[in-house]
Specification:
There is one protein chain. The protein contains 7 helices and 17 strands. By secondary structure, the protein is α/β, with parallel strands linked by helices. The protein has 3 domains: 197 residues, HUPs (Rossmann fold); 57 residues, SH3 type barrels; 77 residues, Elongation Factor Tu (Ef-tu), domain 3, CATH 2.40.30.10. The chain has a 6-stranded antiparallel barrel with strand order 12-15-14-13-16-17. The protein is globular, with a radius of gyration of 22 Å. The relative contact order is 0.13. The mean pLDDT is 93.
Length: 353
């Protein structure tokens, strides 16, 4: 019998993934990661509260499958949380879900699944996989576009995709809840969580204040021409495109255009100055494993919640890519991913610099 480990979170999506695979005849094992939390905030960590763990255990018992908890606190702190802190220290706005999916879920946990003799690992992510005519595996957007999570899974390579199952990607979210009800799963009505797990439901600024206060150093607010117009409270406190909370007296509204971590300066300007037609991405990963031989048209998504924008993507040396948009994009932010789509297919993506 084909063995599959399901990464369980205590939520409805991973619970239904386990139920569907059990129904399809797989030998299913539930596995949950115990992630790092700030001391004293263990009850608030979005991914592995005692309540979430109890819910996942109850689902496993209901389905009659084994359930294991794997300690990932140290590796999570050293990779994901450090990546988050390092990104802000560079003046970027990092997306730690990308490094978590690459290093924790699809390396650390997958290795443990394979060590148990599993053929596959499954998650409750809303994405799909299919094989093209040449045998190359493609990552596709979910049927339910409003829940699609292909943006954060563009980091998977062919080797990982060959071991991956995404049972819920073919269903609308409402149907997933109905399936959970049908199976009598205790997670059927559990709310979705969108927060970064280790922030414990708080604003990221509070987390930085407690864990990396040294990066919240005041500095100058400058225009693009270098004119000083005020003082900021720390670069990490601001996001590209931000207008409110700058504390500036100006006859016209001013927006955050960029950050210069070298001089600890916040760059501001008018709405007309906001936005760009171009970005460069580093650490570009191509889903097929092969770099495209020339420029190609794509829809490009520049953050998880952004709408895709039409662009020309040009691969350049050193695992980089240039993206030239048809129309200016106002929220291009260093540290976020730019992910390239052709219709429903994820072509690749990289980190905006």
């Amino acid at each position: 019998m084909t063995k599959v480990v399901v990464a369980m979170s205590g939520g409805v999506d991973s619970s239904v993934a386990a139920a569907l695979l059990k129904e399809q005849g797989y030998d299913v094992i539930g596995m949950m990661l115990r992630l790092w939390s700030e001391p004293g905030k263990e009850e608030s960590n979005r991914c592995c509260t005692p309540d979430s763990m109890a819910q996942a255990r109850r689902v496993a018992a209901k389905l009659g499958i084994p359930f294991y908890v794997i300690d990932a606190k140290d590796v999570f702190r050293e990779t994901v949380v450090q990546y988050f802190l390092d990104g802000y220290a560079r003046g970027e706005t990092p997306n730690p879900c990308l490094i978590c999916n690459r290093q924790i879920r699809w390396t650390f946990l997958l290795d443990r699944a394979l060590a148990l003799g599993a053929d596959y690992m499954a998650t409750g992510h809303y994405v799909r996989i299919r094989k093209d005519e040449s045998g190359t595996l493609e990552l596709l957007r979910a049927v339910d576009r409003s829940k699609d999570q292909s943006y954060v899974l563009h980091v998977l390579n062919q080797e990982k995709l060959a071991r991956a199952l995404f049972p819920v990607g073919d269903y609308p979210k409402l149907e997933i809840r109905a399936i959970a009800e049908k199976f009598g799963l205790p997670t059927a009505s559990r709310k979705d969580s969108q927060d970064l797990c280790f922030l414990a439901g708080e604003d990221y600024r509070h987390f930085l204040q407690r864990n990396a206060a040294e990066m919240l150093q005041p500095g100058e607010i400058l225009t693009r021409e270098g004119k000083s117009v005020g003082t900021h409270t720390g670069l990490a406190n601001y996001t590209i495109g931000q207008r409110k909370g700058l504390g500036l007296a100006s006859p016209v509204p001013l927006y955050v255009l960029g950050k210069d971590s070298g001089t600890n300066s916040l760059i501001v300007g008018t709405q007309e100055e906001l936005g760009s037609r171009e970005l460069i991405a580093r650490d570009v990963h191509w889903m097929s494993g092969e770099t495209p031989t020339g420029p190609f048209r794509a829809e490009v998504k520049i953050r998880y919640t952004a709408k895709e924008a039409e662009a020309l993507v040009t691969p350049i040396h050193g695992h980089q890519a240039q993206v030239q948009f048809d129309t200016p994009q106002r929220d291009i932010t260093a540290g976020q991913a730019a992910v390239f789509f052709r219709e429903d297919i994820v072509v690749g993506g990289g980190i905006i610099i």
